Amino acid sequence: MAIQRLLIANRGEIAVRIIRAARELGIHTIAAHSSADKASLAVRLADEAVEIGPAQAAKSYLNPAAILAAAQATHADAVHPGYGFLAENAAFARAVVEAGLVFVGPDAATIEQMGDKAQARATAQAAGVPVVPGSAGVLRDLAAAERAAEAMGYPLMIKAAAGGGGKGIRVVADAAEFAAAFQAAQREGLGSFGDDGMYLERFIARARHIEVQILGDGHRAVHCFERECSLQRRRQKVFEEAPSPVLDHATRTRLCASAVALAEAVHYRGAGTLEYLYDEASGEFFFIEMNTRIQVEHPITEMVTGVDLLREMLNIAGGAPLSLQQADIHLNGAAIECRINAEDPFNGFAPNIGTISALQWPGGPGVRIDSMLYQGYTVPPFYDSMLAKIIVHDESRPAALRRLQRALQETDIGGLKTTLPLHLALLGSADVHAADYHTGWLEQWLADNPPAA
């Protein structure tokens, strides 16, 4: 049965994005919010709002009981988890269904199989998809993790099994760093996802991060091509583009086919992303994890394919079959997304909060803004620093880069520091224009080119 009343169990720009997609489908929207988000744009735009707890995420956005109570109280028939928080929590997905509601996403068993990064690696291996060498199973005990690290060798990466969005990840150069890094990653995983399970993976220094967007209805799956997400700072993506500027047709075809095969092997339902490391020198790609939810960077896929991923998610969750055949999905031009965070790039990217005193977004053809801001809004200090995404689309990558520069120059966010200057500086880099970068490039570039006010 199609969804009638949707509770959005998230905040920020993704809550706004979900509300807009749902309302276009005629779905009544209910914004679940903490006490700190009473004045949020999502609350303003939703048909209805319900408070689920205090500012602390553990007592609101990470509190399944509070979210389910809110869903029951507002007579919601479905819950969209967005990304982060409980979006990849299998227990929450199961609880939603057991409460008689629709969970907008894959079922709990699929999340356990693919949302858990350690199990996803095993599933991919069973399906014949190459993976980066790593530990077997989920690690919670430090002594067991140290033994696994010694067996694997250094350098390595510690990654949260329930993680995503670059959180709960540490790169470890040698055994002396391991214990502190493992425990720090566990604390971050517990705080961000409610789970301190970890796994280990060999660290590939000059890899590119490429991911494939898929949609499935439980019976078949399609891909919506790939995104390049190699420009990262502290494992957080800051600048993404679609398609990847370095894949040739044959590699793209093999990569996307592997993602579809893996999605169909687990009878995937909803929108998901399969992430890979790509070795440009050898042309090899390795599956690293699957995100069983919508991604922050989904707009660039929507721009180059014309597919509304949120609308597809909601329709599939409501019981409709996948509306697209693979032959219906085509690449059109190039799209780039810049994440605008409340951080001061001239002060070590320190978090920066305040009240929006002025706000001017860019316009014109091929420009899209996904944002949580409005003039007069006070950014709360309790959550992720991302405020907005500026997305551009044009007929080619060079044209999209020029359009992005114009869009960034038109943007004015007054009242707090943001990462806007970082993106303008990146557009002055010859390496960015040549797409000559990898996942470690941005950290080195920042060290060589410290932002100057």
TrEMBL record:
Reaction catalysis annotation: N(6)-biotinyl-L-lysyl-[protein] + hydrogencarbonate + ATP = N(6)-carboxybiotinyl-L-lysyl-[protein] + ADP + phosphate + H(+)
Molecular function GO terms recorded: ATP binding; biotin carboxylase activity; metal ion binding
Keywords for the protein's UniProt record, in alphabetical order: ATP-binding, Biotin, Ligase, Nucleotide-binding
Domain Biotin carboxylation: 2-447
E.C. number(s) listed in UniProt: 6.3.4.14
Xref: InterPro entries: ACC_Biotin_Carboxylase, ATP-grasp, BC-like_N, Biotin_carboxylation_dom, Biotin_COase_C, CPAse_ATP-bd, PreATP-grasp_dom_sf, Rudment_hybrid_motif
Residue stretches making up the ATP-grasp domain: 121-318
Role noted for this protein: This protein is a component of the acetyl coenzyme A carboxylase complex; first, biotin carboxylase catalyzes the carboxylation of the carrier protein and then the transcarboxylase transfers the carboxyl group to form malonyl-CoA.
Entry protein name: biotin carboxylase
Species of the source: Paralysiella testudinis
